[in-house]
Amino acid sequence: MDRWPLTEQSLARTYRSSYDDAYEAILDYRRVQSYQESHPDAGSYKVANALELPRGRIRGWMDETTPDALSGVRRAQKLGWFDVDSNDPADPLLRAFIQLLAGVYAGGSIRSSGWMPHWTINGPINRIKQSLDTLGMEYRQIHIQDAQRATELVPRTDGSLLARSLSVLGAPTQSKNKSSIDSLPAYLFELPLEIRREFAGVYVAYRQSGDSQTISLQENRADSYHRNLAKLITSVIDDPDSVTVGERGIYISADVRDSLFL
Description:
Number of helices: 11
Number of strands: 8
Shape: elongated
Structural class: alpha+beta
Strand order of the largest sheet: 1-2-4-3
CATH topology of the largest domain: Endonuclease I-creI
CATH architecture of the largest domain: Roll
Helix content: 40-55%
CATH superfamily of the largest domain: Homing endonucleases
Oligomer: single chain
Distance between the termini: 25 Å
């Protein structure tokens, strides 16, 4: 794989900004900081003229405020999230991100109104917890006493940052139905086999149902999505004929399921 999708630029562009491109605000901010370092006595009027930027925009930057996107970028950089090696199956951050991504697709959600990822606990919740631990995040359960809602795991810290990062990696931020999701992110198919198997394992663990011989993964998703998911699963197993796509979802053998859980 040529490039890990999560970068300064892609993360910054999940933030709202007065700029059409939020990453441009970061670049201008850095220009202002650089100019100030070499001209420490310059006031906002001189800096604005020299850099051809609105004075009202840079005055706050000179008084130690920063673009919202920059705060997220700095935090992700500190956590090492931009340094993932997407070609290294042993990279723990890569494994963590991909398992969390699978969890969102199969047993969770991201609500873009508040930028918070959720994972239901009726699945491989220990793998979700381990992944959050690997990313340096604390977490908690919600709706524990609410009989009308599923108990979910959510980050206690950096939830918005993780939600934005997962959205960059392809996680849906809207309802997951036939009209909104028609395929998986293309880059998943370029990841090492071991990492693709992690994605498939978490997905199947969340969605499996059926008898002991045939396991079904039934979801209200587009046929193209089911075919795409089946393609990913068959890419990590020895017997592709044991994965089929039907009208309502995907069917796999119990042997395939068990191999993904190893």
